Structure formats: structure tokens, C-alpha cells
Amino acid sequence: MLKVKNLSLRFGGLTAVSDVSFCVEEGETFAVIGPNGAGKTSLFNAISGVYRPTAGEVLIAGSKSRLPFTMSTVLTVFVSALLTGCAAVLILNLTALWDAVIINKFIYDAAFDWVDCFWGSVAYFSAQNTSFMALPFLSGSIVGGLAALKIFSSTRVGPEVCCSFGLTRTFQNVRLFKDLSALDNVLIGLQNGRGLNFFSSLFHLPSLRKQEAANYKKALELLALVGLGLDAERLATQLPYGSQRKLEIARALACNPKVLLLDEPAAGMNTTEKLALVAIIKRIGALVTVILIEHDMQVVMGIANRILVLDYGSQIALGTPAEICVNQAVINAYLGTSSEVASV
Amino acid sequence: MKGSIFSTIFLSVLFSRAKASPLAVLLIISLLPLLFELIFPGHGICERLRPILIFAILGLGLNIVTGNCGLLNLGVAGFMAIGAYTFGILTVPIFPFQINAWLGLLASLIAGAAAGFVLGLPTLRLRGDYLAVVTLGFGEIIQDVIRNLDTITKGSQGLNPLPALSILGVELNNSHPSLSYFSLLIIIFIIVLLLRNLNKSPVGRAWSAVRDDELAAGNMGVPVMRTKLYAFTSGAALSSLAGALWASALGSTGEPGNFDFQLSVTALCIVIVGGLGNLAGVLLGAAVIVGFNSVFLVELSQFLNSAGLSGTQNVLATPANWKFLVLGLVLILMMRLAPRGLIPALKGSSSK
Amino acid sequence: MSDLEVLTQQLIIGLSNGMIIALIALGYTMVFGIVELINFAHGDLFMLGCFLALSIVGGVTGALGEAILPGSAVSILSIALMFIVVPFFCGALNWCVDRYAYRALRNAPKLAPLVSALGVSFVFINLGLFWGGLPFKVFGYGNAAAAPKDFPNLLPSQNLLANTPIFITWREVLVFLITIPLLVALNYLIKKTRLGCAMRATAQNKDAARLMGINIESVIGTTFIIGGALAGVASVVYALTYNTVFFQMGFRVGVDAFTAAVLGGIGNLPGACLGGLVVGLLRALSDQYIATQWTNSVVFAVLILILIFKPSGLLGARVREKV
């Protein structure tokens, strides 16, 4: 379901993630652990499109999470270049064209002849020196084409693209939409399966109302799944911290993902809340592939099928919980080697 | 005039405690001048309050962009100019187009939307502060274009005479001030209804999400660029509409110097004083700010003139010279005391 | 004049204007780097500095009883006096603005300080209007408060490159003489002193800086003082060069400086200088080769184009959001 190959992430001189590779099967619950600063969240950021990896690649459900260069892209770039070129020529000749076609041909109070205007413009341009028009046209097209290319290339990767390929996540510091209610937060996740249509929203067309009613029901179900059924109308910021974390999970689930990344979902929770969370994650794990970062070993050991251990950005172990517990490298990373302990 | 200022202040206090929908109350209040005009015609009240309505539309447009979607737009005046001059060029008798005034309004709406689209497409991915400079620059560019292409726009003379909108032969301008006022009120009512629809729809939610946290919104599948474009384009369209209505009611586009940065800042103040994202707040903000500028100060000047107290010798004695100081102090104090606007935004689920 | 000479002349004009813009842009960018605020009032602070300079000259003229001769000892002393008093005034005023208008808004939603800055800008504009209406000779006896005021000519206007068609007067020389050492000093301050280190630390991560024992408010206050002082220097140079003072001049100059700061990458000091020079050169070249009435649009069009291809400005770093 998710394949990470030789992923590296560098910020200037600092290497956050170095050459990490692993595979997560469908339906698995996979955990990433490691001491603080090991690069776990950076790994998530690289996978979910927040940062562009410096090296390596990420495959979600078998496909690279980037929008490809298709024929329609090339066509759009070409058309933009053409339009900008024409616009450049038009702008430079605007006043002269206006004089020739509108002012000089206009008789006060006579009806306006659009056909005449068209042929007048054609006559004007054919009377121009071609080399005179070539320079603005060429420079305009080049600028327009390059700009279109630049704009397109900035939309090829990123969080939205990852979501469209079926990967979504929660965040280490809760990032809910503060001015929206819990229900609205979940609705955001639900509504984007169908693209946003401005006009049906503007006039509240029947198709929209049906869609909204259906989403409303689904949102309430998701909130109930994480135990927030009674808090639907409350503002996201008014919820207690533990509920906020659960809301984030409900919101991510609303996007109908294939892979769900949970970044420290149990942080700041007490034991009871953690138990509830483990139950929720187990229920979710039956529906989607879950990858989670967590510090609490009891939570991890209880639900993970396999664990990846990171330290200083590199992967030091990968295996089942039983294997990780006895892995010497992991023990050294967490507790220090005997020489380090001795010098304390 | 002092009465209307007092009542707006009173109302804002009232709204923060009352449960009545501020929008409904405000719209009812705005019918009062109409009543006044019908009972005591000739005082020109509807005419003098018309700028408030036009600026309310301008504010509603900016509110979509800055209030709902969180994009700072400092070039609203440019879009207003586009609307006014599109209407002007297409309807003025000196050019051959001379289309119907209502069609002219529609054309301005489309022109504004197109301009917003073209400007927004390459620039909406910029950081907020950079976008602010770009929109500021856009406003300046439009002003220059209008001033310089004077075969098309008649430069500093402006385009006139422009036809007024008319319904069944009745002209909606100063010859029928109460009808003109009422028709503007209807237009505002329709716009407010449509905007409420948008706020309670997926698009409105997406706008809030992008404003609150663009990154998280992207991760949840919100098409960020498209959402911003929707906001920017519709905001531009509304601003253009305001410009066209202004030109139509005045019968002229006025000179290009009117559509300057100060206009953009006035619109921004309206949105902020009222409370970002708050429809009722925008209307109240328009009443307060434009009421102060165009109504209160003008009245005060006239009063001082007639009492023989002013004169050009003393710069401090002309009320108009205090305009900037008062507005500036109001802004500074508002940000310290009530940064969320005069009417605290009524938060709640949009699916209600 | 031959084409090359015209070009050279325009380059000289552009560079010297660019340096004035750069000085103001530095104020914008320093403040932005440290509090993430676009200080709209900065251009109007510059305007008030010009009014103060005019007042000083008026005072000197009044005390002498006669006009100051360009190039005389009195003019040199007046210029020196202005270069001391005006930056001090502007720096202090900027500090006050931060202390009383912006400081309370450090943790407010992002638009609040921006709107407050707009408010301060308006207050300054009005102060300029009132100042210009004061009943003194140098302000025209308060007859027309809103009209532009003439700033007396204090610099000799002979061409230093006598016998060539290219003009370099003491005005251009003064610009370079003042700004280049100032930029070098600023660079030294930022890179080599403890204060500069504290400023850079605060700009990068306030909380960490606080934990290291840096007094944030004092560093921010100092940044405002330095930025204001730079604007003050720029205002004296501008007044001496352009010989006119007008209460709404802050907007035009402020927008140019603001554009320059963004062009170079906001928060980036060398970027502000580069941006200032680029804007200055663009304006001069556009005035000469395109048309004066299109110059403003040309500058903005170039800005938009550059931002399309380099969204963080010419020298700006891509700001990575902490997730």
C-alpha cells in the first residue's frame, strides 16, 4: 500500500531523514518509533507532501504521488503562451487600434457594427510590419509559457496531491480549523471527494442539498466512531485537548484515505484516554492502512503489526514488536551504550 | 446626522447582547432613511446616504477575500475602477457601443471577475504579505492605465454622461433619490442572501479552512488554489459591480484619482471595523466609516462655515483636515480594544 | 548627448535614487524580519523627517535673518545638524510607535498589527498636514497647509564633471557618501556585534532567543530605532536632493521602498539594498526610455513577474513552515 524507497530529507546542512526504506502492506498497522529528534515527523512530512524529499521516492498504492505531465498540460502551456503573446501585441497597439477602429469609424448616434469592427481590426493588423509585431508576440509568449510551466510544476506535488492519491494524516501539534465546529471540520474532509462547485454552492441547488444531507449523516457517524458524537456543534477550539486529537483523526478519516498517518495521536492523554484511543485505532485499522508515530510503548506494542525504528534520521531496525524489543541497536539508541552510561 | 452616528454605536452595543440577528435588524434600520425621505422630501437624505450603500457592496466584496478567505487585498480600488470604466466605455454616447445600462452592469461584473481571475492565477500562491504588495501594485497599475490611455478613458475628465439604470422608464439616480436608494438596498439584500448561501456551503467551509490553516486544508484534500481563486474572483466581481453602480448613479466615472489607495484602505477599514468575515459587520462598518467621512465631516464643515468659525488661515479649524487623524486613532484603538470588530462574530456550525 | 551618455546619466540617477529607496527599504525589512509586520507608517515617518529637516533649515534661516548660501559654511553646518537631529527624532518616534501601538499586539491575529500600522500612518499624514500649516515663513505662513513646500537649496549645483555632458553634482555625491558608509556600518552591526547577533536570533526564533536570556522587547525596540534612524537619514538626503516636501509624499516613497524590500526578499537586508537599487534603476530607465507616466506600472509589473518566477523575492529564502 505504501512503499518508501531510499527517502532522504535535508534542510541545508541538517539531515533530518537519511536513506529510509520500508514497505507497508494493505490493512497493516505500522508504527514508527525512535528517540526525540530522530526524524519521525520529518519522515511523515516528506511522505505526505509537506516537504519535497531531497532524494528517494514515495509510492502510494503503487503510484508515485505526483501529477504527471499529460497532453492536456502541454496544451494548457501552449495555449497560455499563445494568449499572452497575443495580449502583449494587443496591449502595445491598443490606443492605435482603438483610434483606427472605434473613433475614426464611429458616427454619432449610429448603431455599432461589430462585423465592421472585426474587419477593421484585421485590416489594421495586416497593415502592420510583421517584424514590428513579432518581438512583443515572441517575448509575451515566452513569458506566458514559462509562467504557466512554473505554476504547473508547483502543483505537481504537495499535500493536496497526496490526498488525491489516498494518503492523509494528523499532525503532531493539533491543526484543526479553529473557526469551524467539530462537524464542519469533518465535513471538510468529506466534501472533497466531489470537487467544489461554485455555482451549486451559490444557489444551493438541489444536488448540493442532497450531497450536504448525505455528508452530514456520514460526518455524524465518523464523530461517533471516535467518541465525539455529542460534540458535533461545538467549536473545535472549545473541545478538550484529547477530544481535539480524536477530532483530527475523524477529519482525516472523512477523506476516505487508503493510508492514514497518525502523528503522536496519544500525546498528552491520560491512561483512560489512551485505552479509548487504542480501541479507536484498532477499529480504524480494520478499514484503512494505519501508520503511526508514537512514544508510548504500551500503545505501540498493543496495536502495531510491524515497527520501524529511527535514530538521528537513519533507520536502525524494522520488524515485529517481539523482534524490536530484543534488538540491540534499538536498546542502545534509547538507553545508550554501556560506555555512554558509564561516563554519566 | 449625529443621530445616525449615535444609533449605530448604540446598535453595536445592543447586538453584542441581543440575540436578534444583526443582519435582519440592520436591513430594517436601513429602510428608515427611505421613510424619512418619503415623509420629508427635499432634504436629500437618500442621496447623501447612497455612498454608504455603494461602499457596503464594496466591503462585501472585500469581505469574501480578506474576511472569509484570509487573503489581504490592498487593490480593491483597481477592481472598482475596472467596473466603473467598463460600464462607462460600454454605455457612454461618445463610443459606439451604447448598450443598455443593466447589460452594462452585467458586463462590469464579468470584467471584474475576469480581471480577478487573471491577476489571481499567477499570484495567489504567494505568501500573504507578498500578495498584499501585488494587489497594491495592481491598484496602482489600473490607475495609471486609466489615466494614460486617454483616448479610451478620457483621462482625468472621466467618461460622461453615463445613463442611469432605469426600471420601466423610471431613472434610478438623483432624479428619483428614494427609488435609487431602494434599488441599491434590494441589490444589497440579494448579494447578502447569496453570500449567506456561500458561507453555509462547501465553498464557504473551504474558505474558512484555507484561512485557518492552508497546509492542513491541503492535506485534507481542499483544492487550495481553486478555493482562493473562487474567493478572489467573486470579490473582484462584487467590487466591480460597486464601481459600475457608482458610475451609473453619478452619471460619470469621475476622475481616475478617485480610485486610489485611500479608497482601498477605506474598504479595508470597513471590513475590519465591522469584523472580518461578518456580513452584518461589513454593513455596520460601511455605515460607520463612510458615514463619518461623507456625512458627518461634511455636515460639520457646513455647520462651521455657516457659523463663521472656519477659514483657510487656520489648518486646525477645517474639520476635513482631521479626517486622517480620527480614522487613524480609531483604527489603533480598535485593534487594542476590539480586534475582532464591532459586532462580535457569531460563530457556530455552518450546517444550521 | 550621445546614447551612451544618456544611458550613463540615467544609471547615475537611478543608482542615487535607488540608494535613498534602499535606506527606507532597510527599515521596512528589518522590522518585518523581527516582528513579521509590514510597517505601513514607515513611509510617513520618512515624510515627518523631511518636515523636521525643513523646520531646522527654517530655524537657521530665521536666526540668521537671510537665506543660506549653497556651499557656504552655514549650509554645511545646517546639513550636519540635520543629519544628527532628524535620524534621532525618527528613531525615537519609531520606538514610541512600537511601544504604544504595536507592542500590545505581539500575539494578536495577524491582521491586527497591520491595521494598527495603517492607523499610525494616517495619524502621521495628518500630523504632516498640520505641521505644514504652522504659521512660519518656511511653511508659507500657514496659508496652504496641504501644498508642497519648497526646501531651500543647500548644495551647490555645479557639475563636478565639468566639460562633460554627464551631470554629477554634490547631490549624487552626498547620496553615495552617506549611504555607503552607513550600509557598511549596518552590516558590521548585524554580523559582528552582540546586538546584531541578538537581532538575528530574535528574528529566527523568538522563544529560543528568550530562553537564551535575550530581552526580546528591548531588541525589537532597538530594531525600530535603527530602522527609524535610517529613514531619518533618507529623509534628509531626499530633501536636499529633491528640494520639495509634501505631506502625502510618504505614500509614493513608501510604496517604492516596500516594493524594493519585497523584491529583494522581505526580511533579508542585502535583499533590501538590491531591491532598492533595482527599483531606482528601473524608474530611471523607464522614465527615459518608456514614459514617466508608465513608470509606476513598470515597476509593479516587473515585481509581479519576478514574484511569479521567484516567489520569495530575489534573495529571499523559501520560508518553511514548521509542521
Question: What report would you give on this structure?
Answer:
The complex is a heterotrimer of chains A (344), B (352) and C (323). Chain A has 344 residues and is an alpha/beta fold. In chain A, the strands form 2 sheets. In chain A, strands 6-7-8-3-9-10 form a 6-stranded mixed sheet, with helices on both faces. Chain A has 3 domains: 162 residues, Rossmann fold (3-Layer(aba) Sandwich), CATH 3.40.50.300; 84 residues, no CATH class; 83 residues, 3-Layer(aba) Sandwich (Rossmann fold), CATH 3.40.50.300. Chain A has 14 helices and 10 strands. In chain A, α8 crosses α9. Chain B is built from 15 helices and 2 strands. Chain B has a domain of 238 residues. The longest helix of chain B is centred in the last third of the chain and has 28 residues. Chain C is 70% helix and 1% strand. A two-stranded antiparallel sheet of chain C has the order 1-2. In chain C, α2 runs antiparallel to α3. At the A-B interface, α2, α4, α5, α6 and α7 of A face α9, α10, α11 and α12 of B.
Which oligomerization state do the chains in this entry correspond to?
heterotrimer
Classification by helices and strands of chain A: alpha/beta
CATH architecture of the largest domain in chain A: 3-Layer(aba) Sandwich
In total, the number of strands of chain A is 10
Our count of helices of chain B gives: 15
What is the topology, as strand order, of the major beta sheet of chain A? 6-7-8-3-9-10
Query: For the terminal residues of chain B, how far apart are their CA atoms?
Result: 38 Å
Determine the N-to-C terminus distance of chain A: 44 Å
Main-sheet strand order of chain B equals 1-2
Give the percentage of residues in beta strands of chain A. 15-25%
Rg estimate of chain B, integer Å: 20 Å
As a percent range, the share of helical residues of chain B equals 55-70%
Q: How many β strands of chain B by DSSP?
A: 2
